[in-house]
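Changelog entry

Holo records now carry the ligand SMILES as an explicit input line rather than a separate metadata file. Below, a converted record for zinc ion, shown in the new format.
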Amino acid sequence: MLATYYQDRSEIRVGKIDVPDIINPSDAIVRVTLAGICGADLNFIDYGPEMGVEQGMRLGHEFVGIVEAVGKDVTNVKVGDRVVASAMFVDGECHHCSRDLPSACETGGLFGSPLFAQHGGPDIQGGQSEYVRVPFANASLFTLPESLASEETDHMVLPLADNFATGYHGALNSNIQEGETVVVIGDGAVGQSAVIAASLFNPAQIILVGRHDSRLEFGKTKAGATHVVNAKTMDPIEFVKSLTGGYGAMSIIDSVGNQDSVSQALAMAHAGGKLSILGFGHLYAPVEAPYGEALWKNLTVHTGIVNVAAYMKKLLPIVESGKLNPGVIFTNTLKLADAVKGYELMGSRAPGTVKVALKP
Ligand SMILES: [Zn+2]
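Structure line, unchanged by the conversion:
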């Protein structure tokens, strides 16, 4: 079967490998029908040696598909079910999982990455492939409701595996109140998802801060931002203040997490404001944030990895209701065999490209 894997720094390949088998009784094998390329995948391949990525490691943590086989302990899904996977496979029963914090699962891991792999076993597989072995299938796979269980709806559901759930995590943790102002920093797939998710909380305005005109236009026309600002040509702090009577925004979601974005988020916050920092730019370059701003302005700063498995049961009915379509973030769909081109499109921020889906 075909699978995408890491070859060397900034180099991935698509090649033939063996179809995976069930190893543990809690495993399932899923035949992937659609997979996503995530901004995090770009980081894994650019910072491979620093992050412990080894040659041959399979990539991809966003996928939907059909259950092909199950181990004897799997009871939540059955062969033939159309499913979406949590980007992190989780046991569903440890100390943290039982407190709705599956991102801290004591035995889980992230598909297609070395992160959390200390507990993930020797064979962590990626979703950008024809088949994938899913550990702890009972807690890591979610059977899709009938109206979302078709090839036509795969794009709508796939972002729930990570990017849309992450945007929702930001919207939730920036505690958006009806009628207030929300700022989203970053115009990539997570930023766009945060804009879409923010609309669930009925803010008065959603301001998207980015650095790419085509993505900002996308944010306005497709994701639902009321205002956009290109930080390369205009000071986003002044822009936000100009739209909030000089006071700043109550809710800010930072999908970038680097020096600039964290500083901007703190500076553009209204007193008593709430910041949700989703991005992990600080893993690659240290951030010296002006935390004095947080003290003087009584800010609440939340950060953390999305708890996909805890959100899925809430998000699937929202998508099913037709209230929103997370699938709009996919601007390109390529064959799995063309994954290298997909990585190039996303890595170069090609105009018109926000996120790429791969079809095995
Ligand atoms: Zn757990």
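Spot-checked after migration. The longest helix spans residues 308-321. The chain has twelve helices and 17 strands.
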